[in-house]
Amino acid sequence: MSTNTKIQQPLNIHNVDEYFHAKKVLITGGFGFIGGHVARRLVQYGADVTVLDIDVSEVRESQINCPRQQLRDQVSIIEADVTNKQAMMDVINNGRYHYIFHFAAFASVIEKALTAPYDTIMSNTMGWINVLEACRLSSYKPNMIFLSSTDKVYGEMDGDSYFEHLTPLRGIGVYDSAKLAADVFSRTYHEAFQLPTVTLRMCNIYGPYDFNTGYRLLPKAMSKMFSGEAPEAPELYFDAIEHQRDYLYVDELVSAIVLMAHNTVCRGEVYNLAGGTYLTTPAMLRTIVELAAAVEEKYEPVRSAEILKNGISVKVSANASTIHAITKQHLNGEKLVKDTGFCPSDRFLETLQETIRFYRQYYRFTQETRPHVQLLAG
Ligand SMILES: NC(=O)c1ccc[n+]([C@@H]2O[C@H](COP(=O)([O-])OP(=O)(O)OC[C@H]3O[C@@H](n4cnc5c(N)ncnc54)[C@H](O)[C@@H]3O)[C@@H](O)[C@H]2O)c1
Predict the structure, then answer these.
(1) Which atom belonging to ligand 1 lies closest to the Cα atom of 124?
(2) Across residues 221-234, what is the average pLDDT?
(3) 3-state class (DSSP) for residue 345
(4) 207 lies in which domain range?
(5) Position 123 in a domain
(6) 31 Cα–ligand 1 center, Å
(7) Burial class, 145, CB count within 10 angstroms (exposed 0-12 / middle 13-18 / buried 19+)
(8) Per residue in 41-97, pLDDT tens?
């Protein structure tokens, strides 16, 4: 396991709550994992938050619907599809937002994109174009329009890490290329139409409230270990044995995003978001198993022993030959440090353990009996 930087948070975000206070904010994909965390933070800052999503159902698993947070009552909600150009024009024209954060996407990466390539391109590329077009055509211009891009736009690594202005964009998978196209248009709309776009190429994010349990490594492992009567071993796909990824805790990502919105120097720029930790997928899963057993030990020691005994189950993916999974993804984050002061912390084990505790409580208690897991601040 290697850490990208040893520099500690906390961040120096002076007057940030005043900065966002009473500002009108639109968060697309706000019922998803990251959008929900950004919504929570901005509500705390006193912003006037509108959350837009294609699925805003009250029964959907989402931080917005979490009864303890009561976020649902503290935000405005719009049900809309970002691929619908007219709908996005109406939302953005009428809303007159100071800030727009765009997270809406088909975001489960490889597997889902392979079964629905056209829908993936429509959501992940055209969804962003619709936001940009609506801003271009509206008489009211936001202070900032944020795109959540990904390290996957770089494709396979040549050297030791990806750099914003040196590394060519060679993403090849359907998800990767769709995000790449959106990412490129951020610069285009800034240069050609002076829109204040900010693009962040993010590494793998972990934290509470990620309910993408079908595909993503950590939520999927959590569901296997804690949702059934007996724990099951988390799966490691054989072709992922060599994979290496950067990981960052979600609340730190939110701090980075807040800093980028706050710093006008970021307008029109593209940034890498490096992780606090860089490690192989098998090492990540082994760490998850060890920490899950340690968390469970306090509640159900027998179950904890079973988690350890199960270990990891190695599987061969059914469509391995058609998947363009990148072997190593490692971002250099110096530009973001220089322009905003953001640095990932070295609290990987602490924040991962808190995340696991969240899922443990989520799956092992009912809504009524579940103790509250306080999020660690990023
Ligand atoms: N989670 C990560 O590790 C990570 C890493 C890099 C980049 N990203 C990017 O960050 C963004 C947010 O990711 P996430 O982890 O929160 O994903 P998520 O799947 O939890 O959230 C995405 C949200 O977008 C909504 N959505 C999908 N299609 C839509 C449409 N057509 N119109 C309106 N809403 C739609 C979904 O309902 C969902 O609520 C995505 O753009 C993703 O590509 C995520």
Answers:
(1) 41
(2) 95
(3) coil
(4) 21-363
(5) yes
(6) 9
(7) buried
(8) 999 999 999 999 999 999 999 999 998 889 999 999 999 999 999 999 999 999 999
The owner of tokens 């760490």 is 287
d(CA 312, CA 152): 26
Amino acid at 95: G
Q: What is the pLDDT of residues 323-376, one digit of tens each?
A: 678 999 999 999 999 999 999 999 999 999 999 999 999 998 876 677 666 667
Distance 366 CA to ligand 1 centre (A): 27
124: CATH = 3.40.50.720
107 Cα–ligand 1 center, Å: 5
**What is the 75 CA–ligand 1 centroid distance (Å)?**
19
Atom number of ligand 1 nearest to Cα 34 = 16
Reply yes or no on whether the pLDDT at 150 is more than 90: yes
DSSP class of residue 264 equals G
Looking at the domain assignment, is residue 303 inside a domain? yes
Pick the residue whose CA is nearest to atom 32 on ligand 1.
81
Residue nearest to ligand 1 atom 38, measured at CA: 32
Q: What is the pTM of this model?
A: 0.95
Please give the number of the atom of ligand 1 that sits closest to the Cα of 211: 20
Count of the separate structural domains present in the chain: 1
- Which of ligand 1's atoms lies nearest the C-alpha of 35? 16
Pocket of ligand 1 (CB under 6 A): 29, 31-35, 53-55, 81-83, 103-107, 123, 127, 148, 150, 179, 202, 204-205, 212
- 138 is written with which tokens? 């509206």
pLDDT at residue 7, as a whole number: 39
Question: 249 with 345: CB under 8 angstroms?
Answer: yes
Residue 375 belongs to some domain of the structure: no
User: Which of 3, 145, 25 has its CA nearest to residue 96?
Assistant: 25
Helices 281-297 and 217-226 sit at what angle, rounded to 10 degrees?
Answer: 40
Contact 244, 329 (CB under 8 A): yes
Is there a domain that residue 127 lies in? yes
